[in-house]
């Protein structure tokens, strides 16, 4: 049969067997006569070699590329399994950063409110004197307490969300576990919020009494009394609208503190040091930003439980919900204390030991039930998805993992919800009766 090709087809004839010598390259019907490779194949080889260089995998033209591909795959697996940050030094930096942002927020609030007052005086044709300026500064905490706290918390909330996005990158929602909750978990979190608040409130009374008896009189310790959050917000109970107080005291901290402490700090410390050590370190850092030693110690049980809820549900919405409910109860009691004389001091009532014991027992039962009913991501063959370190992050879609709940009897879940809910209902009814004057505090 005569040759059907043109003379131009033979200008660069050379023996090239790309399929045998280069098994990583797929056959292509159109090739460049210079090297026997199509443009897409040539780009694939260039990208492969660039990946080798990026991964610091040494190669030369004489190396077997199949072996190099194996070395590159092993390197990528090692990088993928490397626990994410932050480590301990960076985690401490984030904790200090939270304190700095609060200070910056307060400075912005003070400067803004002073500027507003000066502009008001100037608009009336006056000129504020030095004495007027000093009086403004002295009266700010009392006159504009709610405004100061609102601006400070707004600055913190925005900073926390932006910093989280910058630290975690475009997969922030997947790494935090932003997903809906199982209904049984929602009910357990809601039911346990009052028992754990009562338990921590009683524990706070205990730690505060120890502080007052043994440490408060020591030189320099009075500094902490001015940083007691519980005391600083008490005046707002009479003047602040309930809705705004709810947003400032409950919503903003629940979102801002959870994305920083559980979402960033906790993610790194748990991945690098294991669940127990990671939760302990995260909880200590979370409690430490509340400054007052008695408050710091009293917050540790709540911090542990909030992190447990996060690990169990694998959703950042769960710790936010518990944090929100806990602070919301504090807001309700704050308003009740300020408006009903019979409830004075009800925000931290004198609770008998058996109330604390019952509260702690219910918290323990719900915590155990939550752990038994924890959710996991499982592959198509039923194996638990494991990226190589403890995490709550969502797996890549390419893994085909499905979210499943571990074996926990329906009876245990219903019993825990029912018991905690009944206990909470007794507290709510008692509070309503106090508000209406039917019983004394």
The helical percent reads 55-70%
CA(first)-CA(last) distance = 109 Å
The chain-level mean pLDDT equals: 82
Oligomer: single chain
Number of strands: 2
Give the SSE string: HHHHHHHHHHHHHHHHEEH
Strand order of the largest sheet: 1-2
Q: Point out poorly predicted stretches.
A: 1-35
Domain unit count: 2
What would you call the shape?
globular
Strand-residue fraction? under 5%
Can you summarize the main beta sheet?
A: 2 strands, antiparallel
Query: What is Rg?
Result: 31 Å
- Total number of helices: 17
Description:
With 441 residues, the protein is an all-alpha fold. It folds into two domains: 7-80, no CATH class; 88-224 and 233-435, no CATH class. It is 67% helix and 2% strand. It has helices spanning 18-21, 39-54, 65-80, 88-123, 130-143, 145-168, 172-176, 183-214, 222-225, 229-232, 236-239, 242-273, 275-288, 293-313, 317-339, 353-372, 410-435, and strands spanning 375-378, 402-405. A two-stranded antiparallel sheet has the order 1-2. The longest helix has 36 residues, at 88-123.
